[in-house]
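Because showing beats explaining, we think one record worth quoting, sequence and backbone structure tokens together, and here it is:
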Amino acid sequence: MWKKSKVTDQTATGQGGPSEAEQEEEKKAGIKKRSKVPGVMITQFIEVLPEGKSTPDFLRKPIALTIQEGKLAIFKANVCGDPKPEVTWGRAKGDMSDTETFQKKYDEATGEYTLEIHRVSGEEADTYKCYAINEYGKAICTAALNVIEVGFKKKKAMEQLEDIGRGRVNQNFVRPCVRPSFVLGSVDPAEFRKLLRKRKGVDKEEAVKEPGEIDEKFWEIIMSADRKDYERICAEFGVKDFRVMLKKLSEKKKERQEEQAKYIETINNLKHIDIKGLGIASFEFDLELKDLTSRIFLYKDGVMIPYSDEEEMKHSLKTVGKKLIFSVRDLKAEDAGLYQVDVEEVNLFSTDFKIPTVDFIVKIQEVKAKEREDAMFECVLSHPWPRIKWMGKNATLEEGEKYTITVSEDKLIHRLLIKDCSQLDKGIYSAAAGIKTCSAWLIVEADSDPASHGKKKTRKTTQAGGTGLDLGKLAQEQQEKLAKERQEQIDAANKARAEEERLAREALLAPPPPDTGDGDSGEGGDSGEGKDTGDGKNKSKSGSNKSKDGGKSVGKSVGETKDSEKEEDDKKNKKSTDDSDKCKGTSNYDIDPNANGEGDGDSKGRKGHPGPLIPDAVIGSSLHNDAEKERDDKYKKSTDVSDKGKGASNNDIDPNANGEGDGDSKGRKGHPGPLIPDTVIDPNVKSGTGETEEYIDAAGMHSVRTRQGPLLKDTVIDPNGQSGTGETEEYTDASGKRSESTRQGPLLKDTVIDPNAQSGTEETEQYTDVSGKRSERTRQGPLLKDTVIDPGVQFVSGLSNVHALIGQPAELMCKLSNDNCEGTWYRDSKKLTADDGHIMSRDGANHKLVINRCQEEDSGKYRFEADGRKTEAMLNVEDPPRFDPDDLSAFSQPVIVKVGNSTTFKLPFVGREPMKIQWYRNGEELLDDNTTKIEKSFTQSRLLLSKCQRKDTGEIKIKLKNEHGTMEAISRLIVLDKPTAPQGPVEVLESTASCIHIKWRAPKDDGGCPVINYNLERQQVGRNTWKKLGDIPGVPEYKDNDVEHGRKYCYRIRVVTEEGVSEMMETDDLTAGTLAFPSSPAPPKVASAFNNCINLTWSTPTDTGGSRILGYNLEKRKKGSNLWSPVNPTDEPIQEKKRAVTDVVAGNEYEFRVYAINVSGLSEPSSPSEFIFAKDPKNPPGKVEDLKVADTSYTALSLSWNKPTEEVGVQDEAKGYFIEVRQAECIDWTRCNITPIILTTFTVKSLKAMAMYWIRVIAINDGGEGVPQDLDNYILAMPPPVRPCFTDNKMKSFMVVRAGNSVRILLNFEASPWPEVMWLKDDVPLLKRVNISNSESSSQLLITSSERSDSGIYTIVVKNLVGQESFSVEVRVTDDPKPPGPVELEENVPGTVTVIWEPSPDEKRDDHLHYSVSKRDSTKGSWSTVADRLFNNKFTACNIMPGREYHFRVYAKNDMGMSAPSESPTWGSERRKDTFVVNIPAYKTCDLRTAPAFLVPLRQHTAPKGYECYMSCAIKGNPKPRVTWYRNNISLNTNTNYLITNICGVCSLLILRVTPKDWGEYSIQIESSLGRAESSTKLTVRE
């Protein structure tokens, strides 16, 4: 049972809030604020917070817990605030003084506050509060603790019993879902019902006053859900009062809309979270914010989670216009939960994510299909799934002309059929179910027939793919496993409930009262018992069933009492739930009390098999509260599952009769009376005796039939015995029934003939028939010897198709197996001679035909014949576009033209018409316009470009194309024009009192000619005249030495080329002699240090200030001092970029900085250098110790070592290490790391597999490098040795392949070093036609086109230095068998027919060939298999009834499939039946006609897209009315897309696959001569 805490404030999931007193106090105390975390209330004590201070807030709030009693409950919280808040815990009811039960902890490392409640019980179920308080405010959040109580609590049960006695019924005790079946001995049922009615109004009032009992998570989910999902969500959270829920929901939605209006304009198109496949789930909605800077937060189960706009992150947000798409990648089980999106502190959207537990039992496998063949992928799931997601090449696949997606009835087997495969269909295909996926390749093999190249191939009717497993069997086993698990759960629940009820009876019930029954009442009567195994409608109240009670009885249940409430509810057609209830009733008939009858009835308690009902005084479990009963009747629909109803019989029968039968879900009557026992017939009894058996006829009724006469005994025949005896074998017919068949006469033995033996010898072999019995067969007569026939002249190599250019030579050649054979050449069936201009020659077995200059008339089919053999090939003389080499060379030369002029490109060509001519400029096709004209003729094409512009410069291309090929030629057009102006900005290289040195950039376009000069003019600012400085060479740089100090100058610069002068570029005003200081140099670097000297270096500053650097000033500072002292005199700058500082004290630490000096003065000082000790250099370190190899692979190896030891004055501490490597055949060492590493481990990468390497490690410090430490031996780049082993868990050891298909065996293994792989067939090496592909971890055997001779055992042997492993696969190459020969029928024994047929032609070459026999008689339209796996050519069929016609079919079967049938002649004839005359007495007619009417009208339907929709209604009327279905007032009776039926007044319409087109209004009209009626409904299609 659940004990839930009472929530007083709807703040968050399962959380409460402060009491009314606290709320009033807080209103007086300060300002209310809302936290970013939902469910947290903040109170600010002062109006304005000081800068940098904040009120307390929760980063992570405690969440509600539901936990089993006796366990540990933990609440966790993280808080923030400045100053750091103080955290305390409290609870709504009760105290927390017990330190053993309540323990409060704080983790300084994580800043997490924890409340631990040990050994929780029902007394600790409460609302717990967490307070965070500092001087500026406080924050409060709450969390509810719900406790699941285990077992029966006697004390509580006694309290509840006392409440019942006082009229206070606990709602939890009498709730509908608790169905006690104990006897209320001390409470009268009538008084108990009154108590329940008194409680009715109180319960409703409490339900309104205490909505907090509903989990807050429920409100978060339902406020963002669609209305159609309300019922499902309420059922999930146990919400029963819809009226209160809808009212509360409306209030909450209104409140949320008011809050959202502060931040958002609109929010719509909400789509809940859904798995999109490939491990991604997402949800989305359209959002328009009032303030675009508003923050958006994402929470999962109340905890804020970070997200990013990068799609590779775990949680990501993608914004497309107004649409926001949140995605969760790499889905795992822990990703399930409640996701919420908030803007600032307002919640926008909540969605509950549940990850299904479905997985793949059988994954999709790789499929190989030929072109135009269908391919099938199939898989089996662990749990039923309506439809998985199929993907091909990262695109979702939908049902259509190309793809067919099917799902089995149990929703475990899913299949994808790809129709008419082509090369475009090959690739990776995936199946996704929940978060589980599997993938496999589709390989489409091209047609190898060269004659069909380029032609439309014929669609194949075969199908490739499939797992080769019995998926139906696997699915059935999985279904049984799931059913067993469900049954175990149900049994465990029933067992626990029964135990609780037993304990409840012991605790709650007083001793049973004395019998107070009426004197004239009696109990007993005929009774029956029915088991309802279907979904039937229960018409009884509160789970009780009606019984036919014709007298006074004390065995009635409370649910059967016919009071006013029950009659009123019956009129309202309310439904209730009856979960496996047993309801009992009595009869008013007197029968033998010893009678014992039992039968199966239904949930209505109708009559079963006659027999007495054992009296039962257990009161029915209808302890419903009246208020709850009313709500249940209004809002809940129930299903009667596995009800057991007992009803009374009103028939007098033999009390000793013992009958039992099965009733249906409506409780119809089973078979009355005793069942005639089945009789086992002794074959020695006389004819006329019968054997009775039960069977189910076509109507589904149980019937009894008897075989007349004894069943003939099947006799096992001694092959040496007399003819006429029979051999009996058991078999299973098509219906699954075990039967026996008899062979008449001795079984002929199959004889294996020795070719050297005499005729008539026999050889006997044993075989196993269908029943598993060992038998023998003999082949008669000798086996004929095969005769070797000389094949004659053969073609070693035939003619091949030849493609030749017109005017070029062509050659056809073939080779015979005989050198002395002459042959004849033909073209299009016309014999060729040497006079036709063909050269025919023979060189031994090689025959050649040469055509010197091919012409169009030489095209055709050429044939060579020799000794009755022939070979053919096609000669195609092609005439593609071609250019003359001289014309092409001239065309390729660039064309130079001045701007505004015209130019022409012309190129002759040859080639067969029609010819497509295209001209391109810079890759863009040219068309005729004002400046472009294209002329075309049969021999040349010309392009005329007029008024050329500079932008027309570029590549000119002509492209010719005809049916034989394509040819292109490329030229170049250069249009000359004036250059553009120089590019700025102008850079001042130097500006002193005597010169200005400037630099600019070359023009963007030189006009097609190189720059010759730059023309410069100068103007002194303040004057109107410009001074010409003249032309300077084509270098964009000028130094003006004719300037005055302090004056400003402006320059104009133009570009001069052969085509003219460009526009000018004018500079800004430049001042001569402006103070421009250099930038700071880089920090000085220490080159070396000694006790009395430190050597420094530095670099030139990046900006010299427009003049040269005159020198540098250097300063030093001792560590700990603030005073910088100069190293050199300030009037004597250092000219070089280095300095030896000698004014140092040994042992002290110094830092240095430097200034740069130009004509303007000193720069800013550089950044200080690193501190350096003034002391002599250290000694280099020693060798590293314990150098070893930790791990190796083919491309890398890992090293580890220890630091070298320190010896004072000899070797100092190492500061880093270098690793060097060299191959065994090289002498040079290669350093693996550029900078020293400080760790003592390193991984050397990019090695060559199986190569030998020497490794060494060098320690280094300030004193230099130490002595290298080498490994003792070379290292081989390979992993540690591993013995070969195969890694595939499911390797097939047997496979069947159709002849002509490919054989592919792929085996994965692991081995180190690389192993040697060898394949054998039947322990001998393979033929050359078998392709073997080996890799590092796998090997593949491929036979592209298999033959029957390829059958055998293929063995792979994987061997290396460590060991070897082998695996064998048996391959059987076969084909569909040919049908058997003619079939004959004989009758040797009355009532039997012997079927004899000629063997199939494939019997001799296929030892797995066997036969199957099917039968059909004139009374049935279907064929049934009567025998299978027959290895002989004879079969005797029994139970042949006279007067019927029989037909037989014989099939040949092998491992590949089944042949076409061989039909037998018709056996027997139809027996004529005499006319049966019935004299019907005359009856007085009665008018039973009624007008058409609806018993059950149509109801509203909402169907998902792609699923089926079933509409039905019940009608009545006499005469039978005519039924017409309409959709949008259009008749559907003739529409084949709808399945319309009318069975026994139940009219139905079935739409197999619903599409959006089926949306609309559906109506049904029933009409007869007495009137017309109509009912309508609407169908809504859900995407």
